[in-house]
Amino acid sequence: MGAQPIDRFLSITGAEPIARARRLGEEMSSRLTGRAVWSVNSTAIGGGVAEMLRSVLPYVRGFGIDSRWVVIGGTSDFFRITKRLHHALHGSYGDGSPLSVDERAVYENVLRANADEISALVRPRDVVVLHDPQTAGLAPTLSGLGAIVIWRCHIGADIPNPETDLGWNFLAPYICDAAATVFTRQQYVPDVCNHDRSTIIPPSIDPFSPKNQHLEDDVARAILLHTGLVGGDPSEALPTFVRLDGSPGRVDRRVDVIGLGPVPSLDAPLVVQVSRWDPLKDPAGVMRGFARLAEMEPHLDAELILAGPNVHAIEDDPESAKTLDGVVDRWRALPHAIRDRVHLASLPTADLEENGAIVNALQREATVVVQKSVREGFGLTVTEAMWKRRAVLASAVGGIQDQITNNVNGLLLEDPNDLESFASLLGRLLSDAALRQQLGEQARERVRTEYVPLRHLAQYAELLERIDAA
Ligand code: UDP
Question: Which atom of ligand 1 is nearest to the CA of 203?
Answer without folding.
Answer: 19
